[in-house]
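User: Fold this; tokens only.

Assistant: Input:
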Amino acid sequence: MKFYCILATLFITINACGHPSAHHSNQEIKQQNTNKTNTISMNSNIENLQNNPELVVQSLIAAMSENDGEKIRSLFHKNAQQAYGNGEWKSGKDFFSWLESDIIERKGQVDAPQFEINGHEVVVKGQYHSRGYTNKANFLFTVEGDKIKSWQMRY
């Protein structure tokens, strides 16, 4: 009888203290593991973006195809600039107003994009279209770290 009492006490102690369900449900444990994986994945993605200007611009083109405004905005430097051809450059607040009205709100995207890389410059060619507008894309992006610093539409 004494043996069974000790065994029962040991079982209760192990179950209460050592079993994951005593402190966290399986769902909580899965969520913690998912959060850790997502953090590692985000850190890896940031490192990849910083070392690869093409990947930064590819991320922009992908975000544009999904019309993911938040992602699009996040890929640009706070003092980013934009110009059509050799025209006047818009920068900072004016750039982000242009990005919102001409790219995000009009659902601008590039079909069949082709990428050419030269250091921190990335050229994207393909077919650009947005609501009410279509033209061949010939975009020159300059990337600094993991952010796009400039976007020039060349014709």
